Request: fold
Amino acid sequence: MWSRNVEVNVNFERNRKMEQEPQVRVGVVKASRLNVIFHTTYWLEGKPYVGEHTFVPCGEKRIFVPADNHASFTLKDVVIGIGFHWERKEEQTFAGGLELMEDGGQVRAVNIVPVETYLTSVISSEMSANASLELLKAHAVISRSWLMRILEEAPNVTPHKSCSPGVDLQQPPSSIIRWYDNEAHVGFDVCADDHCQRYQGITRQSNPNVVKAIEATRGQVLTYDGCICDARFSKCCGGMTEVFETCWENVRHPYLVAKPDPYCNTKDKRILSQVLNNYDQETTDFYEWTVSYTANELSALIRRKSGIDFGRILDLIPLSRGESGRIIMLRIVGEKCSVEVGKELEIRKWLSESHLYSSAFDVEKTADGFVLKGKGWGHGVGLCQIGAAVMGDQGMPYEDILSFYYPHTELTKKW
Reply:
């Protein structure tokens, strides 16, 4: 039971043999001013807080401790879908503790919750809570695995430097390689948006099947050779899953393989509604898609997104592809310069106002510009959410769903 005398241990110990459920620190939102509504009493250094309060950066961490296990608070203007075409603001409610910290001259809200509480929200936020129970179980296991790998390895992770910061507009480098992973976060474990796993507190916990899935798999993670798996997942693999190193650092994970997926090509709205939240369903052509640009449109877009003045874009040349056909490195040829860009997400960022659905595309030059014909939504590594939804709808047990997408792994109970 929480009380005002409880000290929140922010730097809780994370050893490699966790036998008790740990806590996770989730970075939710940051702004110059944060409006917080405490629905019940929270304590900060012996002072009670309840009702609506506005906070600004103060240079110090402030940890608000809930008075009991039923306490909750609401954050206004939480941005979701950051950088994507469905980006918007929501009002979201959270259980557990709240930490406010200064971050780049703004105030950052961090939610401190037990792992299983976090996962209950993730499963409801990453997909519709109306998904089949077996799919929800499978997703609970992989979301827990992905998170626990971060929590157990965090003290030993050295953030990588995928490229030099910034780009000289007049003298761009010949090659730019970027990838985006969890070590980009400082001061908290994971963010609440698509960069990590969608987490929207208790706002969407509306289906008892989610709670059943969490309880049925409590403490279960995927392991390979005794280590917790880096269990990645994407929305739609486009018929073929991809290997890890296509999208992130050049490390081979034997359980993240490229293989045909016969399940993910469905137009069944009933099944899609199990996986896609209302804003996800605004996208309808994710299995096979086409994007067209005139040369002028593409030139302006790439200059805006990359910071490099290529002049008029003359060609887009795929240099290397992963096993699913996703482009790893792309040469962009302009009148003023030519630059090779990778990996897959950076390519998608440069070629779209938000994010291109995937880098699994072919380039066709036209009289007016370029047509990109692609497949899939996301990086395609690990579990395909739509393919897994079809499996679950067909009655496939969650253990079989997991073994299909993560071969040679084992289910291991951590607590």
Remarks:
- The chain is about 20% helix and 30% strand.
- The first strand starts at residue 23 and ends at 31.
- The radius of gyration is 22 Å.
- The longest helix spans residues 133-153.
